[in-house]
C-alpha cells in the first residue's frame, strides 16, 4: 500500500466516522481536511467540510479539498467506488471485523499520517481500558456471564458487529444470536437473552426499548420479563475505533446493573 513520506504533505478526506475518530486520536488533525457527514457524532471535527459518506457523495466537492488520499470503511456503494477510482487520488478502504482488525487499522492510519508512535500509544490505551473493564467484570461475575443480545438494526433485525461480541465478553457477558448477521425473532427468543442492548446504526440514543418489550415473540425472554432492555448510543458500539472504550464501559454498566 502506498504511503506518503514524512516530508510530503498528506491531505486526507475521511469518509467514515471510525477513520476520523482514529486520525484525531492520533493527533493527525492537520492532515484531516474533510470528513463524512456522520463524523461529528463521534469526534470533535471542528469546521472541517462535510462531504457525504461511503454511500453517497459529491465527488466534485471532495476533490475541491485537494486531497492526496481518501479513506473510508466498508461497505461502499459500487457507484461511490467508481467515482473515486475515476479521480487521481489514492483510495484506501478498511474493513474491520474484530478488535485485532481495529488495531491493524490504527497502525495503518498511523503510518499514513506519519504518526506510528501515536498509533502504538492509542492501541495500548485501548487495551488497558478493555483490561480494566474485564477485571471489573471478573470481580462482579459469580457464574457464567449473562446472555446478551445486541442489535444494530431492527428491520430487518441485524445483530451487532463481531467486535461487539468481543466487547460483551470483555464486559462479562455472553453474546447470543450471532454477530453481524440477520436474525429472526424466533432465534432471539430461543437464545433467551438475560439482557437486550439496542444500538441502532445512525440513530444515536434514539432506539426504542418498547419495540422489544412489546414484541409478542419475546414475552418469555428473560430480558423482557425483567425489563432489562437498554439503549446504548450506537456510535459507542458501531464505530470501530476509540469510541469503543466508552462502549465497553456502557456494556459493563447495563450487563451488571451498575450506575
Describe this structure in words.
By secondary structure, this protein is of the alpha/beta class. It folds into 2 domains: 12-114, Nitrogenase molybdenum iron protein domain (Rossmann fold, 3-Layer(aba) Sandwich), CATH 3.40.50.1980; 137-256, Nitrogenase molybdenum iron protein domain (Rossmann fold, 3-Layer(aba) Sandwich). It has helices spanning 17-25, 59-63, 78-85, 99-112, 116-140, 162-170, 185-191, 209-213, 222-225, 234-238, 244-256; strands at 12-14, 32-34, 69-73, 90-94, 147-154, 157-159, 174-175, 195-198, 229-231. The strands form 2 sheets. Strands 5, 6, 7, 8 and 9 form a 5-stranded mixed β-sheet that branches. A 4-stranded parallel β-sheet has the order 2-1-3-4, with helices on one face. Helix 4 (99-112) packs antiparallel against helix 5 (116-140) and helix 5 runs parallel beside helix 11 (244-256). The longest helix has 25 residues, at 116-140. The radius of gyration is 19 Å and the shape is globular. Residues 1-6 have low confidence and may be disordered.
What would you say about this model in short?
The protein is α/β, with parallel strands linked by helices.
Which short descriptors sum up this protein?
single chain, alpha/beta, Rossmann fold, 2 domains, five-stranded mixed sheet, four-stranded parallel sheet, 11 helices, 9 strands, disordered N terminus
